[in-house]
Structure to design on (185 residues):
């Protein structure tokens, strides 16, 4: 990417978090970046395209997860997979702030940039893992609960309580708690 495009994305993310997606105009983004609105349009055709570009890394990261779910992971493999998700999530943690502060907007726009079939397939794959009676019930409950560790620390109900904790400090703690829930040494 080029410097101007990156600055537009960084600035848009800041503004979307600070004042909301709906309340942020392309003019505000351009002014804060120090470019004309025409220059902004050179890089992005719309505010919606900026948002899509910002959230794309999260959805791109779901592909490997969906593939891993099809292999019906055991507790240990599940733990390793969640450790990878924690690493990816912390690398994109500002996006969690965006999601938290713009839930309604993101849900309304999701139809435009999320493949409904892929989203449904992800939910079905998760449900299949949790419903697979070949895996002990206690393991399936632990696997489901371990997802809640990530969701509760990086999103609701903790809100922004952990967003400013350095990733290198938070990541090993999250992985340790996930392993505690999974009872993996």
């Amino acid at each position: 990417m080029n410097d101007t495009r990156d600055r537009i994305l960084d600035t848009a993310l800041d503004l979307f978090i600070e004042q909301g997606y709906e309340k942020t105009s392309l003019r505000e983004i351009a002014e804060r970046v120090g470019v004309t609105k025409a220059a902004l349009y050179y890089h992005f055709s719309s505010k919606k395209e900026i948002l899509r570009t910002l959230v794309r890394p999260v959805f791109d990261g779901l592909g490997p997860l969906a593939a891993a779910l099809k292999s019906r992971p055991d507790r240990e493999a599940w733990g390793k997979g969640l450790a990878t998700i924690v690493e990816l999530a912390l690398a994109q943690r500002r996006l969690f702030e965006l999601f938290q502060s713009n839930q309604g907007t993101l849900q309304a726009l999701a139809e435009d940039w999320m493949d409904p079939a892929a989203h449904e397939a992800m939910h079905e794959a998760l449900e299949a893992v949790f419903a697979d009676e070949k895996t002990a019930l206690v393991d399936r409950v632990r696997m489901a609960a371990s997802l809640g560790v990530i969701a509760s620390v990086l999103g609701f109900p903790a809100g922004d309580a952990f967003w400013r904790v350095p990733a290198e400090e938070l990541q090993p703690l999250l992985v340790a708690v996930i392993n505690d829930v999974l009872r993996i040494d």
Summary: Residues 66 and 118 are 9 Å apart (CA to CA).
